[in-house]
Amino acid sequence: MAEVQKKPVKIVETVLRDAHQSLLATRMTTDQMLPIVDKMDKVGYYAVECWGGATFDSCLRYLNEDPWERLKIIRNRMPNSKLQMLLRGRNLLGYQPYSDEIIRNFIRCCVKNGIDIIRIFDALNDIENIKVAVDETIRQGVHASGAICYTISPVHTLDSYVTLAKQMEALGVHSICIKDMAGILSPQQAFNLVTALKKAVNLPIVLHTHCTTGLAFMTCIKAVEAGVDVIDTAISSFSGGSSQPATETLVYALEELGIHTGIDQSVLKKINEHFTSVRQEALTDGTLNPIVLTTDTNALLYQIPGGMLSNLISQLKTQHAEHRFYEVLQEVPKVRKELGYPPLVTPMSQMVGAQAVTNILTGSRYHIIGKEICAYVNGAYGTAPGNIDETLKNLVQEKQQASNTISELPKSMSAAAKELGELAEKEEDILSYLAFPQTAISFFKNRKKEKEHCCPYMITQLSE
Ligand code: CO
After folding, report:
1. pLDDT tens digit string along 74-101?
2. Residues 94 and 439 sit within 8 Å (Cβ to Cβ)
3. Could you give the CA distance from residue 17 to residue 134 in angstroms, rounded to a whole number?
4. What pTM value is reported for the model?
5. What spacing in Å lies between the alpha carbon of 180 and ligand 1's midpoint?
6. How far is the CA of 209 from the centre of ligand 1 (A)?
7. How remote is the CA of residue 243 from the centroid of ligand 1, in Å?
8. What is the spatial distance between Cα 359 and Cα 118, in angstroms, rounded to a whole number?
9. How far is the CA of 239 from the centre of ligand 1 (A)?
10. What separation in Å is there between the alpha carbon of 19 and the centre of ligand 1?
11. Distance 309 CA to ligand 1 centre (A)
12. pLDDT value of residue 455
């Protein structure tokens, strides 16, 4: 009797985005990627995640790179692959909400420069915050993936996730992604969640998790057992620790189970050789701290993502208060509860972390309240998953720090263009400026200087 054909599972490779965001603080340069992208184009991945998240900020702020140019180059060099990006809903790639006009223009430019799949999430799982982005992605004719931020709290039940997935399906998304940024989704919960989502919606289900707590491989296998369609992995030299589970390992295990991935395993070896040398460079220059490569089960105890833990440590270090780390760790869940249990993902993870540090270091809870927290309490970021603490609400009112505007960003494309003047060379520059005004300005000024410097040389070269 012929063997029953098992459903294949597709693979998204994250090494060009999340893997180095998780391990190298997003410092991988385009030059470190390019020597291998031609080979990556031939592996048979479902998609390559290569843009969005923190890569945009990091390009402009630390790498003196134009993120749009990076995307264009990768697009050009990977003609056969679907390129995927991560988008923070209404916040785009920044930390605060934008107008519909800006959201639509941003997404149009992402697609124009080569993006095929936009994975869209909102830090609060507020469906209102992803509506416009999903709509524009569909309008641009590319794949809109609705991402559910997975977290554990009394208000985040299986039912709440199913409801969210149904709302996303109604918006017209093409797939649903379970986004487990902290690596706290257990094998059993993954099985339950994938099973429930498969029953509730008629869309492919994607699993995105992190190895932080050591659960990821088991979680992926149980998700596959429940019928998950796509999983995110990272090439082995950039896997594990706070990154994704290893591509080679999962492909090996799945193929042995008779589950095809469509991946050419012989090419993976060459890709891994390349990234092994990139990892070695990062270890040597200190960009990669070996600590992030290990398993850290604290997240299971405190439900705090790995990236947030290292942020808290560095915040305390700068204030010479490292010895108060455990007090802060205990304060984080309290603050989170008082804010109505937001998932700890950008920008909520930073906001909750900063408030917890302030509460501990000032010795008086909410004596000082961050302006972003005030705006959040007033609804500027959307609807909180649970109830916001009444005492905190009153405190925000009393302190009259209440404000709905978080900073003075230009409200429209034309206002931003006017502010930028001749520094803007293309429409993408206006969007970079809207995302990170100060950083973009320094980048543009630098670019101008470099051009002025390099032009006479170019002319000499050409005239010879
Ligand atoms: Co991630």
Report:
1. 999 999 999 999 999 999 998 889 999 9
2. no
3. 21
4. 0.92
5. 7
6. 6
7. 7
8. 37
9. 12
10. 8
11. 15
12. 57
